[in-house]
Amino acid sequence: MAKLKIEDLKKIKERVQSENALRDGDRRVRVTVHMGTCGIAAGAREVLSTLMKEIEESNASDVVVTTSGCMGLCSREPEITVEILGEEPIIYENVDPNKMRQIFRRHILQGEIQTPFVLARGKEQV
Amino acid sequence: MMEELSMHILDIVENSVRAGATMVTIEINESTSEDRLTVIIEDNGSGMDEETLRKALDPFYTTKTVRKVGLGIPLLAQAARAAGGDLAITSEVGKGTRIYADFQLSHIDRQPLGKMEDTIVSIIAGNPGMDFVYIHRRNGGTYQLDTRELREALEDVPINHGSVLSFIRDGVKEALAAMKVGSGIDLEHRAITDDP
Q1: What is the pLDDT of residues B11-25, one digit of tens each?
Q2: Residue A96 falls within a domain, yes or no?
Q3: Which of residues B182 and A64 earns the better pLDDT score?
Q4: In a domain? residue A15
Q5: First and final CA of chain B: distance in angstroms?
Q6: Minimal Cα distance from A124: which residue of B?
Q7: What is the DSSP string of B76-107?
Q8: Does the structure show a pLDDT above 80 at A26?
Q9: Which of A1, A7, A56 is closest, CB to CB, to B166?
Q10: CB under 8 Å to B148, separation ≥6 — which residues?
Q11: Assuming Cys at both sites, which of A122, B85, B163, B190 could form a disulfide with B102, CB separation 3.0 to 4.6 Å?
């Protein structure tokens, strides 16, 4: 029988607390997945799941994920905005799980903007 | 296209987020004997007045200014009507909104529920400041997840931490898989239990 056990959750809590004690969990990168009706219909949820899996596998605790609404360019969905501290935000268009993995590994972790997938520089106005 | 009910649910909850809700309850009931599937999403957001409520089902009505259509509710209504069901909204300004959609469970055109675990995790990851209750009943079995209970156990660890989210995803997935269709056995699944 499957249950979310309170002890398991407490173990996770203790592990995270000890990790945070070692290095102050600074937020270096914020990734926003656009979650409007258009984004969801185009596959934004899979993009978000892929991103979360990548973050966990690479143990990149300085990357924070959030969601936003539609910014009016529904035909270019799924869209994500990558904001690296001290750099201009980049909006990517037509993202799928493969592109998400590439953007994560090359741009978010190594700092190389993945130009072929870029929609615009700047932050979305929702 | 929206091909899974779980994606519609994610979309409707985004409406609650936009309405400034701090608490959203997602309730899914599946009954093989009654051949019904119902989805109820209730929030404590800003609510709608009578006129807005009437327009909410119109695909050419939206409160947003960046585009001219608002398809979230109309798409869910269409999915329900295509599967021998319907959609109803009740709302009160300042109190919140409740969306009720029902389906004939065995209808050939009923969309599959899809990955509820991904929907729940996406909602929590995107809105760590909000609280969510997810209740899923299937033929007498009940699964319940309450972010307030999770928060209590987590103390100062954020609920949108990667390890916590992946723990929630696995938990929801396993629990739903354990609630067999048509078993009729009373399985009590709680999101959190003190049993070892």
Answers
A1: 999 999 999 999 999
A2: yes
A3: A64
A4: no
A5: 43
A6: B66
A7: HHHHHHTTT-EEEEEEETTTEEEEEEEEETT-
A8: no
A9: A56
A10: B131, B133
A11: B85
Q: Where are the domains of chain B?
A: 5-190
Pick among A1, A3, A34 to test the B interface (most B CBs inside 10 A): A3
Residue A68 has, within 13 A of its CA and on its CB side, a CA count of: 19
Mean pLDDT of the region A116-124: 88
A40 touches chain B (CB under 8 A): yes
Please report, for residues A40, B16, B71, B161, the alpha-carbon distance to residue B43 in angstroms, rounded to integers and kept in the order given.
20, 6, 19, 24
Q: Kindly state whether A58 is in contact with chain B, defined as any CB-CB distance less than 8 angstroms.
A: no
* A41–B1 CB contact, under 8 Å: yes
Q: Is residue A38 part of a domain?
A: yes
Q: Tell me the CATH number at A55.
A: 3.40.30.10
What residue in B sits closest to A72 (Cα-Cα)?
B66
Of A13, A38, A64, the CB nearest to B157: A13
Tell me the chain A residues in contact with residue B11 when contact means C-beta distances shorter than 8 Å. 37, 40
Q: Looking up tokens 């799941």, which residue turns up?
A: A49
Please report which confidence band the pLDDT of residue A96 belongs to, taking 50, 70 and 90 as the band edges.
very high
Q: How many domains does chain A have?
A: 1
The pLDDT score that the predictor gives to residue B37 is 96
Check: complex ipTM more than 0.95: no
pLDDT at B68: 78
Give the closest residue to B165 by CA, choosing from A79, A27, A54, A103: A54
Cα angle, residue B132 at apex, residues B13 and A66 outer, rounded to 5° = 65
User: pLDDT at position A23, please?
Assistant: 53
Written as one letter, the residue type at A12 is I
Residue in A closest to B117 by C-alpha: A49
Q: Is residue A76 part of a domain?
A: yes
Q: Which domain holds residue A54?
A: 25-121
Q: What is the pTM of this model?
A: 0.88
CATH of B5-190, one of 3.30.565.10, 3.40.50.300, 3.30.1380.10, 1.25.40.10: 3.30.565.10
- Residue B105 pLDDT exceeds 60: yes
* A67 → closest Cβ in B126, B154, B155: B126
